[in-house]
Amino acid sequence: MSRDRGSATVWAALVATVLGAVFAGVLLLGQAVVARHRAAAAADLAALAAAATWAHGPDTACATALRVARAQGAELAGCRLGGEVAEVEARVAAGPFTPRIRARAGPPREPPAPRTRGPVGAGRTARPEQPAHGWLSAHGVP
């Protein structure tokens, strides 16, 4: 008889334990990623809702953001309005994870000045005194 008799059972149990631990780690990582994405989506939507209703006052805008965050299954951890810009913070509890994500929404910034033709990477902007000859030339298309 060999001394190695039954060692395959020990190795199989060890491999099964390691694979189970790796699988549990992957599941936890997936749960953390899903929680983060849910919190980010809720924060983005709540910020957009608050920015859309800023004219009704900060109380109404934050109440709207709260309603939208709750509809997404999140809690509103913070809401602040600075003029037309809304900043909110949302969190989602998913298992042992509770990520907090901040989002900001408001009117768009001014568009950048159209670029002139030139060497690649020159990065020059059009001078105001240059006349624009239609939409295409104003956007750098020859």
Short summary of the structure?
This protein is an alpha+beta fold.
Description:
- This protein has 142 residues and is of the alpha+beta class.
- It has helices at residues 7-52, 58-71, 134-138, and strands spanning 75-82, 85-91, 100-105.
- It has a three-stranded antiparallel sheet with strand order 1-2-3, with helices on one face.
- A hairpin with an 8-residue loop joins β2 and β3 (100-105).
- α1 (7-52) runs antiparallel to α2.
Strand-helix topology:
Blueprint: H1 7-52, H2 58-71, E1 75-82, E2 85-91, E3 100-105, H3 134-138
Antiparallel strand pairs: 1-2, 2-3
* First-to-last CA distance: 87 Å
What does the radius of gyration come to? 27 Å
Overall geometric form: elongated
Low-confidence stretches: 127-142
> Count the strands?
3
Fraction of residues in H or I helices: 40-55%
Number of helices: 3
Main β-sheet: number of strands, strand sense, barrel status? 3 strands, antiparallel
Mean pLDDT: 81
Q: Which band does the percent of strand residues land in?
A: 5-15%
